[in-house]
Amino acid sequence: MEGIVIKSTGSWYRVRTTSGEETECKLKGKFRIKGIKTTSPVAVGDHVVFEKPPGDNVGLITEIKPRHNHIIRKSIKLSKVSHIIAANIDLAVLVVTIKNPLTSPGFIDRFLVTAEAYHINAALIFNKIDIYGEKEMARLDELAAIYENAGYPCLSVSALKGENIQQVKALIKDKVCLFSGISGVGKSALVNAIQPGLKIKTGNISYYHSRGKHTTTYPEMHPLSFGGYIIDTPGIREFGLVDFRKEEIAERFPEMRRYMHQCQFNNCTHIHEPNCAVKKAVENGEIPLSRYNSYLKIVNDDYLEKEKWEWE
Q1: DSSP state letter for 219
Q2: pTM for the model
Q3: Which homologous superfamily is 2-66 in?
Q4: Which of 4, 47, 138, 220 is least surrounded, with the fewest CB atoms within 10 Å of its CB?
Q5: 163 pairs with which residues across the strands?
Q6: pLDDT tens readout for residues 50-99
């Protein structure tokens, strides 16, 4: 039988067939994904082949179908090992908040760079607009303009009030969508608003630390009644790229891609070289300074050599 992995705990996997039947499965033998050293070879979103021995309710996964993409973070406990968050994603959605808690632009940019690196389309959803005053809404509009200019769809919603949820549904319809964000942005509440009845556990903000409390333990894929799936992920506090070279960073900023091939030097770092088209575009306001500063921070802070990205 064939199906899609909708939940993974690292040792057990829930597989859903096209008919909607769900089976708890384990791996049959050992699997190795070529070129990737991971905590588990099977991820949510994987298409697998499994068998059910006669008289046994537990399925055995015998084959993992080829992936068209996947997204990885480094394992928190094992620095040399990566953790596949999900596979076969059509859209990576980052849920963002301006306050309670604040999602830093640096974190947004790192998420988008990650999505670009793994060839996944991305979008931003700004949540909690019901609690924002004029200052926060002005900041939201400023950020949305920056990221829409880069080519990322941006929506403003209130999961609590149900505001603009239909826009979100239109964005994700018939797609496999990964929902992510730092803890406390209302990601699970938003998923519940999109698909009532899921009853995903939500938590409160820890006001002492201005951070959210983890409510999602394992990535889980939920079918949508209007078509597609949502992959709900644990709130990310540590995030990193794997097998990524500094020379590739500029390629992961769409605004920079528009200009970088006009530079005088083919190996331009867009930092100190003369006749750099990227720097000129920054000076002319064609590339937002905040995005260029994120690029500099990523390149200059030796972040590729770090074992993890810190939550900000």
Answers
A1: -
A2: 0.84
A3: Nucleic acid-binding proteins (2.40.50.140)
A4: 138
A5: 158
A6: 999 888 889 999 999 999 998 876 655 555 566 788 899 999 999 999 99
